[in-house]
Design brief:
Layout lengths: L1 H17 L2 H4 L2 H11 L4 E2 L3 H7 E6 L2 E7 L4 H10 L2 E4 L4 E8 H8 L14 H4 L5 E6 L8 E9 L7 E8 L4 H12 L3 E5 L8 H14 L4 H10 L16 E5 L6 E4 L7 E4 L3 H8 L9
Helix pairs in contact: 3-9
Amino acid sequence: SKKQAEKAVHQKKEQSKTKCRKARRRHINLVAEFNHRQRKNIWLETHIWHAKRFHMVKKWGYCLGNSPTEKSYRACYRAMTKHCLLQDISYYCCLELKGKEDELLKQLARICSIDAGLTFQEASCLSGRFEGSLNLYRADRYPEDMLGPVTFIWKPRDGSENRQLWIWVHPALKQDILRELKAIFQCSEPEEICITEPITTSIQEEEQVEVVTSLGNKRKKEDKEGEKAVPVKKIIGDGTRDQFQSYSWIAQTTGIAISDKSMEILRYRLIGPLSHSVLTETLKAASVQTV
């Protein structure tokens, strides 16, 4: 028993040597580990910040911050009423439509109704000045078969008859709404297929981690060579779309194109009276040079 105890202590020491903090915290090791942990639930770009301060929940294919671990409700309320509160809502899905304005409006009119309020043809929204919100229905089925609420933004006109529209939908509604859009515009042909390299299997990832750990004891020069020798693949896709599925479709008859831009565009919500001043202080207008 004494020998077994000594053996256990010795094994523990060996393990702690190979898994020292420096080796564990090396960037290449972290990316491989993070990718492995995102297999079922995708992380937002603010995930690490939220994971340290929030109780996380797994919903709609994402890992999201649900409630704060500290008593920060008063601080949040104060920020909303007097200052500025920022929320990461990048898990909302963005569906992009491109094509002739007349064709877009003709078919979009089938999935909404003037009787329910705003439509895609509202003048202030169509110009691109304002974001609109409405409820979508299955084609020609209003007031039955509601799909759900969406918000939309038209890209301002550039003199061409072609327009670009972004429709923002909740991830729980995305598949149904995307299916309906593809049906009304007859977009069946994949325009682009995601042909990214597959995510490494768990065995390969384990091998990567082992290689990185063993490299941790070597000198810096060898360490840098080791980094190049162990490639880490980035996760492509989002919680509502498989990485090998098509993400863009085109209609052969009208040329209308639908693209799934989910997780390719970050979205933040600013709440509070100082939101505008925060934005103006943060964002600077680019100087456009016309030749």
